[in-house]
Design a protein that fits this description.
This protein is an alpha/beta fold. It folds into three domains: about 5-165, Methylthiotransferase, N-terminal domain (Rossmann fold, 3-Layer(aba) Sandwich), CATH 3.40.50.12160; about 170-420, Alpha-Beta Horseshoe (pyruvate-formate lyase- activating enzyme), CATH 3.80.30; about 425-480, Nucleic acid-binding proteins (OB fold (Dihydrolipoamide Acetyltransferase, E2P)). The protein has helices at about 45-60, 85-110, 120-130, 150-155, 170-175, 180-185, 205-210, 220-230, 260-265, 285-295, 310-315, 325-335, 355-370, 395-420, and strands at about 20, 40-45, 65, 75-80, 115-120, 140, 160-165, 190-195, 195, 215, 235-240, 250, 255, 275, 300-305, 340-350, 375, 425-430, 440, 450, 460-470, 475-480. The strands form six sheets. Strands 1, 2, 3, 4, 5, 6 and 7 form a seven-stranded mixed β-sheet that branches. Strands 18-19-20-22-21 form a five-stranded mixed β-barrel. It has a three-stranded parallel β-sheet with strand order 8-11-14, with helices on both faces. Strand 19 (about 440) and strand 20 (about 450) form a beta hairpin. Helix 9 packs parallel to helix 10 (about 285-295) and helix 13 (about 355-370) runs parallel beside helix 14. The radius of gyration is 22 Å and the shape is globular. Bound molecules: 5'-deoxyadenosine and iron/sulfur cluster (SF4). 5'-deoxyadenosine (5AD) binds near residues 305, 345 and 379.
Length: about 475
């Protein structure tokens, strides 16, 4: 799979994909004690991993570790991995090789380096990693992070540790919480995991095997975490879940689904914006759809993967919906919120996908009109039903289809952005721009918007009018009030 053909057309918030995010902690302080040791964490893949990395940093900070973005300085290196596509998993082994070189260099200076592999590759291939890569000291699956301190301690004392148990509820209950300083250092837009795991079993996907069954966090836990974020200065919260709209809970004797939770969270004073991702079409219920018309803080952006526009392929992917049912959800959402930006994920070249099936995907894309999207060539994952299917599509055809699909999606993305030129909007200022004197904010539709200004405005909502746009960003002027 080439880097080029697998690059998402737009990456405002990465879904599981192959581009690693290096997590750097601007705030190098610890949670209190300092053991003089440093940790370097490399995060691959989805927002869930970004969230998990932050929780690992929180736990390690309380043990006295300082985060570093220089691997050579790190006493502890953690690779927080992604297993969603073959390339992502293979990358881990080449990175282990890189860490090995650093470890040898450090050893010459008398310094010890402990290496841990966490995340979904650890879950899926824990024993194999230990066998294939003797330098790995620790393998920890995503549901074991509440035990990280103990596991690291054991690994540092020379034991080879493998933990891949599923104790997801315990994980949420016991994960360490970040300090105010850590929250602020991570910025004004924060992730909050409300749900983890998946029971849908799409036939191409490893998530139900690596993250386990769907588990929802309790309403109280979520509200408490949201308050903590907002009290520290966070303006925008994105609720995260592999199937975020399958979240369910109970409060005051009533069953709640995501819609009810969003209403409750929107009451938090100081919270300016709410988002959620990733949703499954069959879990878009009426309350959730209506919430988009009623909650001002809920941003008009919906990531709703469809994967394919062909009913035959949707069926063999076990998606539980047809393309017409997907279109119906989009229509209902746009009825209550006409300016809703629709984002999606697509897979080309799933086994059995004919030219005609592919054209149906192209037709669906034309009918929806997407803002930002992610698109991939089908990657066979061992242990999933898709891997056993006949009628595999040759790589060359997959590549051709992906090019055509991405060209169309890119056109739509540019159209979407250019249609915003001249339209007044509020942006939440997040960070410095690339050029001096510039700052970047997010539009309600998740576009990056560049304006003149300085860092004192981070966290503010600013009214702007875009004057130009490209695939990556909008350039805007402020509206004087
Ligand atoms: N091959 C290609 N893409 C995949 N995705 C999940 N599994 C695979 C696979 N085996 C994509 C889907 C999903 C996104 C997170 O990753 O589009 O929505
Ligand atoms: Fe994977 Fe399908 Fe579950 Fe999404 S809904 S995590 S694609 S199995």
């Amino acid at each position: 799979m080439s880097e080029l053909t697998n690059t998402p057309t737009h990456v405002p918030m990465p879904t599981p994909e192959d581009n690693p995010v290096i997590t750097t902690a601007d705030d190098k302080s610890t949670g209190g004690k300092n053991n003089g040791k440093k940790v370097f964490i490399k995060t691959y893949g989805c927002q869930m991993n970004v969230y998990d990395t932050e929780r690992m940093e929180d736990a390690l900070a309380q043990d006295g570790y300082t985060s570093t973005d220089v691997m050579e300085d790190a006493d502890l290196v953690l690779l927080n991995t992604c297993h969603i596509r073959e390339k992502a998993a293979e990358k881990v082994y080449s990175d282990i090789g890189r860490v090995n070189k650093v470890k040898i260099k450090r050893a010459k200076k008398g310094l010890k380096t402990t290496l841990g592999v966490t995340g979904c590759v650890a879950q899926a291939e824990g024993k194999e990693i230990m066998h294939r890569a003797p330098i790995v000291n620790l393998v920890a699956g995503p549901q074991t992070y509440h035990n990280l301190s103990r596991m690291v301690e054991e690994a540092e004392s020379g034991k080879r540790v493998v933990e891949t148990e599923f104790e997801i509820e315990e994980k949420f209950a016991k994960l360490k919480t970040p300090t105010r300083k850590q929250i602020i250092a991570r910025g004004v837009a924060a992730f909050l995991t409300v749900q983890e795991g998946c029971d849908k079993f799409c036939t191409f996907c490893v998530v139900p095997y690596t993250r386990g069954a769907e588990v929802s966090r309790s309403v109280d836990q979520i509200i408490e975490e949201a308050h903590r974020l907002v009290d520290a200065g966070v303006g925008e919260v994105t609720l995260l879940g592999q199937n975020v709209n399958a979240w369910h809970g109970a409060k005051n004797g009533k069953e709640w689904r995501l819609g009810e939770l969003l209403y409750k969270l929107s009451e938090i004073e100081g919270l300016k914006r709410l988002r959620y991702t990733t949703s499954h079409p069959i879990d878009m219920d009426d309350v959730l759809i209506e919430a988009h018309g009623k909650i001002d803080k809920l941003m008009p952006y919906l990531h709703l993967p469809v994967q394919s526009g062909s009913d035959k392929i949707l069926k063999s992917m076990n998606r539980h919906h047809t393309s017409a049912e997907y279109m119906d959800v989009i229509k209902r959402v746009r009825k209550v919120r006409p300016d809703m930006a629709i984002s999606g994920d697509f897979i080309v070249g799933f086994p059995g996908e004919s030219d005609e099936d592919f054209e149906q995907t192209m037709d669906l894309i034309r009918e929806v009109g997407y803002s930002s999207t992610y698109s991939f060539k089908y990657s066979e994952r061992p242990g999933t039903p898709g891997a056993e299917m006949d009628n595999k599509v040759p790589e060359s055809i997959k590549a051709e289809r992906l090019l055509r699909l991405q060209a169309l999606l890119r056109e739509q993305l540019i159209d979407f952005n250019q249609n915003c030129v001249g339209k007044e909007m509020d942006i939440l200022i997040e960070k410095k721009g690339r050029d001096a004197g510039q700052i970047v904010g997010r539009s309600p539709w998740l576009q990056a918007v560049v304006i003149d200004g300085d860092m004192s405005e981070v966290g503010n909502i600013v009214r702007v009018k875009p004057k130009s746009a490209n695939a990556a960003a909008l350039m805007a002027d402020r509206i004087k009030s």
